[in-house]
Specification:
single chain, alpha+beta, 7-stranded mixed beta sheet, 5-stranded antiparallel beta sheet, 4 helices, 19 strands
């Protein structure tokens, strides 16, 4: 049985009472069973089929493991796919126009090509705004969002963008795009909108950091920026060579955030006899700022133990050998006394 009315999508969590049918009716963006995850198809088969038998313990034993395995597989696959939202932040004055882009929509299910948008304020949960059929441009506005009339879609040639024609202070929030891919959902990373904020470019500096476990590390610091959200990237350059992207296997990145500043620590895994100059870039409000100077890093030689460490190891091994000899001598003496037996005197 297929329903022709598309319900509003809301983000919710499944309860522990096992009532999948009621949760599916309020969680997923469509009451069309083909548009729900694989968990929905299994649940709906029991609930909507006319004349279906009553649920028995055997049904539960067979259904629950299959549903759990399906959800686990969907979650693992979804971790490797996401929609692309290039803008981390956008800043506008009240009364201006703003649009949010969403790329990678070719990953969406061609059978149900709907692009959904959600709003997330700092102190609230995800709220569904509206969605659009990307094949014909028909919008679905049957939502409970109080400002749904402020939003619309615009076709930019390579995809659909969410548009706010007249920005208000109440529009300050993070906006996420989402769509269905087979039997799971994929989301974008989100774009945060700041209203009536002053834009200040970050001051970017790069420093050599402490050597950790014989590996070199660099620190890139971005400070005094507004809004405070930034994105780091690194590039390397051989002597008299071109700039190239940093291979993922060569470095590990760690970000540290504090009010007014954000730092990125790059831990390098360099091969022997290799020397590179490293450049740090910070993306902020659609503009990329480069550190004023680069840092040159060479592969470190294997660590050589100091004379103190060598002497300490020699003492340790000597103590272990003496301990073993004393143990062997004591054990041999006990065996001799045992074999000799009690004295006849």
């Amino acid at each position: 049985m297929r329903s022709t009315v598309r319900q509003q999508p809301y983000l919710s969590a499944a309860g522990a009472d096992g009532r999948f049918e009621e949760l599916l009716e309020t969680t997923w963006p469509s009451s069309d069973l083909t548009a729900r995850p694989c968990l929905a198809s299994a649940a709906s088969e029991r609930h909507f089929s006319p004349g279906s038998p009553e649920e028995t313990p055997l049904h539960k034993m067979l259904f629950l493991p299959a549903a759990a395995l399906c959800c686990l597989c969907s979650a693992l696959v979804a971790m490797a796919a996401e929609l692309i939202q290039d803008d981390l932040t956008l800043t506008r004055r009240a009364g201006e126009t703003v649009s949010f882009s969403c790329g990678g929509t070719d990953q969406c299910d061609s059978g149900r090509p709907f692009l959904y948008w959600y709003q997330k304020k700092d102190t609230e949960t995800f709220t569904y705004i509206l969605d659009i059929d990307m094949t014909n441009g028909i919008e679905d506005r049957r939502s409970n969002h109080p400002q749904k009339d402020d939003f619309s879609f615009v076709n930019k040639g390579n995809g659909w963008e969410l548009l706010i024609q007249t920005v208000k202070l109440s529009h300050s929030a993070t906006y996420y795009c989402a769509c269905r891919k087979v039997c799971y959902w994929i989301f974008g990373s989100g774009t945060k909108l700041y209203v009536d904020e002053q834009v200040v470019k970050p001051v970017v500096s790069v420093y050599p950091a402490a050597h950790l476990e014989g590996k070199s590390s660099l620190l890139c610091l971005a400070s005094a920026m507004s809004p405070p959200v930034v994105q780091f990237s690194w590039k390397r350059q051989k002597k008299n060579g071109p700039l190239e992207d940093l291979p993922p296997a060569e470095g590990e990145q760690l970000e540290l955030r504090q009010p007014g500043r954000t730092a990125s620590i790059l831990l390098l895994h360099l091969q022997e006899n290799s020397t590179y100059k490293y450049h740090c870039y910070v993306k902020h409000e659609g503009i990329t700022v480069e550190a004023q100077k680069e840092q040159e890093v060479s592969a470190l030689p294997p660590p050589v133990p100091s004379q103190y460490q060598v002497k300490l190891l020699c003492v340790l091994y000597t103590v272990l050998i003496v301990k073993s000899l004393v143990y062997c001598c004591g054990l041999s003496l006990l065996m001799i006394l045992r074999n000799k037996g009690p004295s006849t005197n």
